[in-house]
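Example record for the data management plan.
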Amino acid sequence: MPFLIETFDKPDHQALRLEVRQAHLEYLDANVTLLLACGAKLSDDGTTASGGLYLVDLESREEAERFIKADPFHKAELFAEVNIVRWRQAYLNRQNTL
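Corresponding structural encoding:
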């Protein structure tokens, strides 16, 4: 069942995000089979990330919590807040999937 994980970076932690980014990307690559979609939330000018969205295919909230806690961004204490909710796909690639 899909879960949406939304993360919010701590203010003024852009340097930490950049420092840990490569390890974060390697973690995502190692878990690509779980990812339905994933990406950073950006400022309007596209230059600064302030958190991220993950759509993950996992069986339980506990698995989603373990997934995000193992992310190098989480381990580096980049996040001020993490929200996890179940998600139902309705549209994908401009197609109704219901």
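Summary line stored alongside the record: The mean pLDDT is 95.
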